[in-house]
Amino acid sequence: MRSLMVLWHPPDAPMVKLNTDEAFSTSTMEAREGGLVRGCNGGLLRAFCSPVAASSSFEAELMALIRGFEMAMEFSTRIWIELDSAALVTLLSSGQLGSADLRLHMALIRSMTSQRQVRFSHIYREGNRAADFLAGRGSRPLP
């Protein structure tokens, strides 16, 4: 069996890096989001965690990405977005809007990224532990 070392890498200046994640319970239909923006030295610029009203884990991922992207835009117009959802990275890189229930979120993301230099990439969950931790911390009950 081959092993793979998974590491988080900081972005090159003046880019910032956004990592987001979600936590979704299919039994309770509760969703949480978390994420962080870091600079070229790896230092934390902004972080967030909170419950969100989402009907699926994929929708919660999109909502976390939107919230994190809004924060990242405060620091740079060059943003590297790194997610542990390979399916979402594929969708974002394709130019498609996805299924009908996700199109509003996808259209908003397309609009937000259109005037910026944005890079999307996948990272394994082990490299996205900080965002995963924050998503787990956003566990307050939904109103």
Provide structural commentary.
The protein has four helices and five strands. The longest helix is centred in the middle third of the chain and has 16 residues, at 57-72. A hairpin with a 5-residue loop joins strand 2 (31-38) and strand 3. The protein has a five-stranded mixed beta sheet with strand order 3-2-1-4-5, with helices on both faces. The protein is α/β, with parallel strands linked by helices and 143 residues long. The radius of gyration is 15 Å and the shape is globular. It has one domain: Ribonuclease H-like superfamily/Ribonuclease H (Nucleotidyltransferase, domain 5), CATH 3.30.420.10. It starts with 15 loop residues before the first strand and ends in a 6-residue tail after the last helix. The mean pLDDT is 91. Helix 1 (57-72) runs parallel beside helix 3 (103-113).
